């Protein structure tokens, strides 16, 4: 880090970004990685590299952080909101297949809260229909599907190093791909349309400016060295909750699926409608105990932000799993400094609510 401050300038201005990109690509086992300001820009870059534009459709889960879908709108394309799998909370080939049309250009598979969808089936579907598969791995660094790391399976993948994520550079993101054609296209787009090695200040097209600073990259390198430790810590925190799950009857935590190594970005509690627990009231109760929980993401198709989207109403009428799970789920505290005693306090506060509920 100190070296980045003292030496990462002038002719060394890209030194730490290049090192970080190389280390990240090696970690993932893919040939190409680009460090970026955020995962949002990485998702945007994915669509730009594919040339997605007006008239195109991109399939995205209805329940995810808005950043998974916003870049589709930036490009004037149409987000098609797919329902979630009730167990993994991610997309499944069954939820996606009926939504594919001749206009579909890409599927964005989001590894929600660290879990992973059945990537083989999604990969097959995308290949057979000639559609790009993008992995939004913002919440899943270190997760594995059949021993393949999250982000190493799709045509492209995106990662976030936002402060809330398992690995952080304050703000930041990474875009990765196995495809040289997409990488070479992305290099030009993310650098104001400058062709690498081309004449100076002689831009070939109007592009974007999407770069990470050397200071962030130095931080990223240090975080990446500790990635196994950070993921192990997340899994430890989840295990503390899991060991107490029997004390919350009728409620369940993130699924631990065969073939998936879950990095458990956020331990998440869901319950059946019949339990009669109101999500917003439970959040208010936890907040009154100074415990910071979060609502399970709301379906994007239900948000004011997407009401003008042509596919929002169809999604609201169709995606009942998304609606059911989202309205009966909260994320539990999972900061890397959390202690087992604090987990005990959270579980006690949850039990208190279930007991005092009228
Ligand atoms: C955090 C997150 C993003 C966006 O990451 P930024 O680095 O904040 O742009 C995208 N997708 C998902 C699923 C996320 O959780």
Characterize the structure shown.
The protein is α/β, with parallel strands linked by helices and 358 residues long. Helix content is 37%, strand content 15%. It has helices at 2-7, 15-28, 39-50, 70-74, 93-96, 119-128, 180-189, 214-225, 227-242, 279-288, 312-318, 320-327, 340-356; strands at residues 32-36, 57-61, 78-82, 104-110, 132-136, 144-145, 148-149, 156-160, 173-177, 251-252, 260-261, 268-271, 294-295, 329-331. The strands form three sheets. It has a seven-stranded mixed beta sheet with strand order 1-9-8-5-4-2-3, with helices on both faces. The N and C termini lie far apart (54 Å). Residues 38-40, 64-65, 67-68, 110, 136, 138-139, 160, 162, 173 line the site of pyridoxal-5'-phosphate (PLP).
Blueprint of the fold:
Elements: H1 2-7, H2 15-28, E1 32-36, H3 39-50, E2 57-61, H4 70-74, E3 78-82, H5 93-96, E4 104-110, H6 119-128, E5 132-136, E6 144-145, E7 148-149, E8 156-160, E9 173-177, H7 180-189, H8 214-225, H9 227-242, E10 251-252, E11 260-261, E12 268-271, H10 279-288, E13 294-295, H11 312-318, H12 320-327, E14 329-331, H13 340-356
Parallel strand pairs: 2-3, 2-4, 4-5, 5-8
Antiparallel strand pairs: 1-9, 6-7, 6-11, 8-9, 10-12, 12-14, 13-14
Helix pairs in contact: 2-8, 3-7
The protein binds pyridoxal-5'-phosphate.
């Amino acid at each position: 880090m100190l070296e980045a401050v003292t030496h990462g300038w002038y002719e060394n201005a890209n030194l730490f970004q290049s090192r970080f990109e190389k280390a990240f690509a090696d970690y993932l086992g893919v040939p190409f990685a680009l460090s970026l300001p955020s995962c949002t820009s990485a998702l945007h870059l994915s669509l730009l590299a594919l040339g997605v534009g007006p008239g195109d459709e991109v399939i995205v889960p209805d329940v995810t952080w808005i950043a998974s879908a916003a870049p589709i709108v930036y490009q004037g394309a149409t987000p098609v909101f797919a329902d979630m799998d009730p167990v993994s909370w991610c997309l499944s080939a069954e939820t996606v297949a009926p939504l594919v049309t001749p206009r579909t250009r890409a599927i964005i598979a989001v590894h929600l809260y660290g879990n992973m969808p059945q990537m083989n089936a999604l990969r097959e579907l995308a290949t057979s229909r000639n559609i790009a598969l993008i992995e939004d791995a913002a919440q899943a660094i270190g997760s594995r599907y059949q021993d393949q790391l999250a982000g190493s399976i799709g045509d492209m993948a995106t990662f976030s190093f936002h402060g809330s994520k398992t690995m952080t550079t304050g703000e930041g993101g990474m875009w990765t791909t196995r495809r040289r054609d997409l990488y070479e296209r992305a290099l030009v787009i993310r650098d104001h349309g400058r062709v690498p090695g081309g004449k100076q200040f002689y831009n070939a097209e109007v592009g974007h400016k999407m770069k990470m600073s050397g200071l962030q990259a130095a931080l990223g390198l240090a975080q990446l060295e500790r990635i196994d430790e950070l993921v192990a810590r997340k899994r430890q925190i989840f295990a503390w909750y899991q060991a107490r799950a029997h004390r919350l009857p009728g409620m369940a935590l993130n699924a631990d699926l065969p073939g998936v190594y879950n990095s458990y970005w956020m331990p998440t509690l869901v319950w059946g409608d019949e339990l009669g627990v109101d999500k917003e009231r439970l959040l208010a109760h936890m907040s009154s105990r100074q415990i910071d929980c979060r609502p399970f993401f709301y379906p994007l198709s239900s948000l004011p932000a997407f009401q003008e989207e042509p596919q929002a109403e169809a999604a609201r009428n169709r995606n009942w799993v998304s609606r059911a799970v989202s309205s009966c789920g909260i994320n539990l505290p999972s900061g890397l400094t959390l202690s087992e005693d604090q987990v005990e306090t959270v579980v006690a506060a949850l039990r208190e609510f279930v007991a005092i509920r009228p």
